[in-house]
Write a structure and sequence with these properties.
Layout: H1 2-20, E1 40-43, E2 48-50, H2 51-55, E3 59-65, H3 70-85, E4 91-97, H4 102-112, E5 118-120, H5 128-132, E6 139-143, E7 149-154, H6 162-174
Parallel strand pairs: 3-4, 4-5
Antiparallel strand pairs: 1-2, 1-5, 3-6, 6-7
Length: 181
């Protein structure tokens, strides 16, 4: 038992020391109740888009996903329908694919007739992993009009369901989930 505790303690200490010696600069992460950090997104056409400019003043449904993820593929038609149900001047649905190949994303987006803004984060290297801390997909962040992360949802949701749409309108009106304190 002492040996196990010693090994665990030594491992934790080594991890802490190595983390303290890292050359990495600290990056803001997406945290519920805190404003989403700003980041640059690459469109499927290759243009760079500033998240704060795209999200400004709108409730955002920000979905991290991948073409190789069966639940993500299944959820996409519902997100497309949601984007059609919500007024563009108050809401924006945004997809960020973590695929390695942008052509896979382009083909899937065309096949599914996705009309909302879609971006590519190669392998999740610049946004999904360092900012969202997302490693399982799909994962969706709901931001209020001030850019604060109101909810983080791991897994799928019935996005076009009337209750979900009503909850999003509640976030627009109050800045928080209708059933939160």
């Amino acid at each position: 038992m002492k040996r196990i505790l010693f090994t665990m303690t030594a491992g934790l200490l080594a991890t802490a020391l190595l983390a303290g010696c890292s050359n990495d600069t600290e990056q803001a992460i997406a945290t519920k109740g805190v404003k989403m950090p700003a980041f640059q997104m690459q469109s499927l056409a290759g243009d760079m888009v500033d998240s704060q400019q795209l999200f400004a003043g709108k409730v955002v449904v920000l979905n991290a996903w991948a073409t190789w993820c069966p639940p993500c593929r299944k959820e996409m038609p519902d997100l497309v329908q949601l984007s059609r149900l919500l007024p563009d001047d108050k809401f924006v649905v945004v997809g960020i694919s973590v695929d390695n190949n942008p052509d896979d994303v382009k083909n899937f987006v065309a096949e599914q007739k996705v009309t909302f803004p879609m971006f590519w984060d190669k392998g999740g290297e610049k946004i999904a992993a360092p900012i969202f801390k997302s490693f399982r997909f799909p994962e969706t962040f709901i931001l209020n009009r001030e850019g604060v992360v109101v909810e983080r949802i791991a897994g799928t949701l019935p996005w076009a369901d009337p209750e979900t749409v009503a909850a999003l309108h509640g976030i627009y009106d109050t800045g928080k989930l209708p059933f939160s304190e």
